[in-house]
Amino acid sequence: MGKRIHGGDVSSFLLAFLWLQLGLTTALTKSAWRTLSGNSPAIIAKGGLSGLFPDSSLYAYRSVSVLSANGTTLWCDVRLTKDSIGICLPDMKLDNCTDIQYYFDKGRRSYKVNGVKTSGWFSVDYNMSDLAPVTLTQAIYSRTDSFDFSGLLILSVDDVVKQVQPSSLWLNIQHDAFYAQHNLNMSNYVLSVSKSVTVNYLSSPELAFLRRIAPSFNNTKTKLIFRFLDKGIKEPSTNRTYGLLLKNLTLIGTFASGILVPKSYIWPVTPDNYLLPSTSIVTDAHKAGLEIYAADFANDNLFSYNYSYDPLAECLSFIDNDLFSVDGVVTDFPTTPSEAIGCFSRLNKSRVDGKPLIISNNGASGDYPDCTDLAYTKAVDDGADVIDCPVQVTQDKILICMSSVDLIEDTTVTKSRYNSRLSVIPKLQSTAGIFTFNLTWNEIQNLKPIISQPLSLYSLMRNPRNKNSGNFTKLSDFLALAINKPLSGILISIENAVFMAEQLRIDVVDAVISALNDAGYNNKTALEVMIQSTDSSVLVKFKQLTKYKLVYKIDEVVGDAIASSIKDIDAFADAVALPKESIYAVNHLFTTEITGLVPKLQAAGLDVYAYVLQNEFVSQPWDFLSDATVEINAYVAGAGVDGIITEFPGTASRYKRNSCAKLQSKKPNYMLPIEAGRLLPMMAPVAQPPALAPMPVLNATDVVEPPFPHVTTPKSSGGAEAPPPTAPPKAPSSGQRQIASLFLALPLVMLSVVHLLV
Ligand SMILES: *[C@@H]1O[C@H](CO)[C@@H](O)[C@H](O)[C@H]1NC(C)=O
Ligand SMILES: *[C@@H]1O[C@H](CO)[C@@H](O)[C@H](O)[C@H]1NC(C)=O
Ligand SMILES: *[C@@H]1O[C@H](CO)[C@@H](O)[C@H](O)[C@H]1NC(C)=O
Ligand SMILES: *[C@@H]1O[C@H](CO)[C@@H](O)[C@H](O)[C@H]1NC(C)=O
Ligand SMILES: *[C@@H]1O[C@H](CO)[C@@H](O)[C@H](O)[C@H]1NC(C)=O
Ligand SMILES: *[C@@H]1O[C@H](CO)[C@@H](O)[C@H](O)[C@H]1NC(C)=O
Ligand SMILES: *[C@@H]1O[C@H](CO)[C@@H](O)[C@H](O)[C@H]1NC(C)=O
Ligand SMILES: *[C@@H]1O[C@H](CO)[C@@H](O)[C@H](O)[C@H]1NC(C)=O
Ligand SMILES: *[C@@H]1O[C@H](CO)[C@@H](O)[C@H](O)[C@H]1NC(C)=O
Ligand SMILES: *[C@@H]1O[C@H](CO)[C@@H](O)[C@H](O)[C@H]1NC(C)=O
Ligand SMILES: *[C@@H]1O[C@H](CO)[C@@H](O)[C@H](O)[C@H]1NC(C)=O
Ligand SMILES: *[C@@H]1O[C@H](CO)[C@@H](O)[C@H](O)[C@H]1NC(C)=O
């Protein structure tokens, strides 16, 4: 598929191409953005890259220049010390974001803050030299605390400017009245700091404060931004709720040049977290001559299910829709809006051929139950190149697509009248199951599918409204569904073939070949057929009988492979599917290195596919910044894989279409692949993960299997392990899957990258 340039006049083709490129670039730089100014939206890094490093720390601020677009604004939440120095801290309680308790164990105080009694350690009780030894820590429990011992000191606004030299600075000011009670004058501080450093933005949720300082900033470079908090909260100086204040943007325009609103003001969500239509607030603000900035972007937040756990999709909905663009986004992960603005806006929707090949995993199983018609249709619509069917067999010997041989995983069988058909079959799995071959196809159709929930341990549920939607598919349905679709191929995955041959007396290899022939895959379609198995004997048999592309799946994490095992694989396979941790090795959710496996296998002429990629941020090491696109980019641009096996083909397909893909060596910094292992030296030795045992090496014993058995005619005794007479006492009771073992022992987290510092 693809490659359709037939010789001809290459230079005129090139010229046309260049001309097109120029046209595109001009179109994009001029008036493409629906912001107030027409310029691209601003990126504001809240406390720096605070999704990874302690908020407002040197690591967090410095990494922005490496991992975010040029011109990214650094945000500082200003607090005043006893000696009137402005410091950057995400929380007014120092005990929330520093280790101050260890230096001033009797420092807890209770003060009224906006009328609410608040207890903790406050900046107003300390002068700058008191705070000199205090270090910053991660304030959000779900993020990594691995940088808490890196000696990251509290920074004053001046420190940030001197040590980081931001191209743009945003100061957020809150609690003016509180400081006044402690004889500190925030207005005075703001006026004096703006004389020594360039302040590009000054925001506050306090109307009286902004109005008071506004005249001093009239006709300066500094933009004054009124910050809206949640609609029900009362603005302290007027006693009116922010919801009420929103009704009079003209009033805001008398002292501010813009507003900052929680993102739900723009895209509200239902109580069950689905997106409602956008409000008119962006165009209203623009009509009133106000810029509008959206706050609270964090890749590790729970955002609406409509985005399929893809933070880049969320960001694009605020800047790249047909109606409006906000003028800037305030985020803990500035890499994501950098990608959105620089490489993913105004993308052509049509599929792009070539590498990487996007292969679905049970269809678009991040959005719909595995292997249902809905999951397959969505995968096609989302731009997958290849959709996959893991073949299982029913009692009446019908081949179906089902991600597990055990119906308990994928269906509501435990709540059905078939729930007594439990067997223990150690050859298939250690726990009791209700297997596909113990129900007929008609019986299976009486069940409902269950959406996969691989990360439910972290309460990250997939598309709850559709958790039981869709119809099960037979292999023949799947083949018919795929045949006229804009796909480059299909992948049929076959496991337990030897068990099927010996115990069920069905030769699944022959059965799959006839199903493909019956569906016209030999003569009606250009779709490429791929067969995947972890069992080399299955692939060997296919190789003897067909010309299909054969994919050997390695089902354990290995760090290397001995030469003879690669030679063995090469004898029966065209491609290898590798667990993603075999490519980027991971220790306690930090990457440690890129193994040499991909180039080794490619050198032998094998394509390499990485599996299985998911959007949920907990499925990724911290290095990937809780952004599935950063992970995909690492596997494609960094590790050079030929394909990606993913539960969210839409995210991978959009990656393939990104407008920076063709920039080669001129790619912007935030589109460079992460460097594996670069975060480890940024941790104090005490915080580094313990060394791991070396990764196992694939050897010939792992690869070579006895030849595929012949299926004999049924005899009286089949020899399958007999089921126990009664169900075991602890039968699995739900269809929930096990979480990937990688995460079992770990706290909920996030992650990221960084090539600099030190
Ligand atoms: C961003 O800044 C770096 C370093 O100053 C520079 O090399 C690069 O060309 C800039 N990129 C763009 C797109 O302006
Ligand atoms: C700090 O405050 C945030 C927001 O109020 C809260 O989610 C977090 O748990 C607090 N962290 C600590 C260490 O107290
Ligand atoms: C800071 O406060 C401490 C007491 O907390 C005091 O000993 C010290 O002299 C003060 N330093 C300055 C520079 O004011
Ligand atoms: C605070 O500082 C501003 C500007 O220097 C000044 O106009 C104002 O009077 C001061 N307020 C108090 C309460 O001292
Ligand atoms: C800013 O200056 C303009 C005239 O240059 C004046 O009309 C306006 O009222 C001033 N705004 C504020 C907030 O002082
Ligand atoms: C705001 O309202 C509360 C009671 O609702 C009142 O106690 C307080 O004085 C009011 N503050 C202002 C600034 O009007
Ligand atoms: C909005 O505020 C402006 C300026 O303060 C005022 O003139 C106008 O009456 C207000 N409009 C409404 C609907 O409250
Ligand atoms: C979000 O998803 C729900 C459920 O699929 C759908 O009804 C709704 O229209 C979507 N919202 C938007 C704004 O696309
Ligand atoms: C399921 O099928 C296997 C293989 O035919 C058979 O050995 C087993 O007894 C069946 N289990 C039940 C509960 O029917
Ligand atoms: C699922 O199957 C039922 C019954 O065969 C059919 O009515 C329905 O349209 C199918 N749903 C989809 C989404 O194809
Ligand atoms: C395609 O092959 C199938 C089975 O091999 C056959 O039944 C069918 O007639 C063929 N169709 C065409 C158009 O050749
Ligand atoms: C091959 O690896 C397996 C475990 O993966 C090990 O048990 C076996 O000893 C190894 N064989 C050789 C020849 O190294």
**CATH fold name of the largest domain, please?**
TIM Barrel
> In angstroms, what separates the terminal alpha carbons?
47 Å
Largest sheet data: 10 strands, mixed
pLDDT below 50 for ≥5 consecutive residues: which ranges? 1-30, 715-758
Beta fraction: 15-25%
List ligands, each type once. Answer: 2-acetamido-2-deoxy-beta-D-glucopyranose
User: Any idea what the CATH superfamily of the largest domain is called?
Assistant: Phosphatidylinositol (PI) phosphodiesterase
Tell me the CATH architecture of the largest domain. Answer: Alpha-Beta Barrel
CATH uppermost class of the largest domain:
Alpha Beta
| Total DSSP helices | 25
CA gyration radius, whole angstroms = 29 Å
What's the domain count?
2
Explain what this protein looks like in three dimensions.
This protein folds into 2 domains: 39-343, TIM Barrel, CATH 3.20.20.190; 357-744, Phosphatidylinositol (PI) phosphodiesterase (TIM Barrel). The strands form 5 sheets. Strands 12-24-23-20-18-17-16-13-14-15 form a 10-stranded mixed beta sheet. An 8-stranded parallel beta barrel has the order 1-2-6-7-8-9-10-11. It contains 25 helices and 25 strands. A hairpin with a 5-residue loop joins strand 2 (73-80) and strand 3 (86-88). Mean pLDDT is 90; it is low at 1-30 and 715-758. It is an alpha/beta fold and 758 residues long. Bound molecules: 2-acetamido-2-deoxy-beta-D-glucopyranose (NAG) (12 copies). Belongs to the glycerophosphoryl diester phosphodiesterase family. GO terms for molecular function: glycerophosphodiester phosphodiesterase activity. Keywords: Glycerol metabolism, Glycoprotein, Hydrolase, Signal. It catalyses: a sn-glycero-3-phosphodiester + H2O = an alcohol + sn-glycerol 3-phosphate + H(+). InterPro entries: GP_PDE_dom, PLC-like_Pdiesterase_TIM-brl.
